[in-house]
# Entry
Amino acid sequence: MAAKFNFQFTSDDRRRPLPHKLLLALGPNESVRHIALKLLSWLLFYRERLQVETEVPDDSIPFVPDLVELGYDLRPLLWIECGDCGTGKLHKLSVKCSACEIWSIKRSPAEAEGLLRAMEKEELRRGRFGVIAFDPEFFDEVCGLVAERNVLHWHRGGFGGEPGIEAPMLQFDLNGLWFDATFQLWRY
# Structure
């Protein structure tokens, strides 16, 4: 298995001018599934200042996010956790990053619902979190296509409520295969 995955991008979406490429590396105990979650999250949340696995310059935050957008004051504005993430970590993030959007990205609705039940049981702060879950068949197909070198053409996507996008969805071509997929989104 490759340790680094290169993604070259083109885009039809003028509101989302993706950079030419993105390099994602496997961390310890990570798999292609984690790479695919980071890739899909990066596409959905893309912003000019979005960074992958960058340490936050704040000693009170002992975590490294999968994806983060830092403000000009270097405080997190957006924090994204892909795959496994416990409620203890989410609680600490909600306290230490009080002005930050916090998202957890899951492979399936079953995983997302399990996290949401745990968040409710642990009485995490309401109004602080977003959770996204992909269709498992779609997600497995994306994982099967991820190679050391990848070409991705982004057509469009979003969370719903935007012009031309009524419900959460994404459309792209990855290594010659077209995807037109929906995903589920919860706010907690």
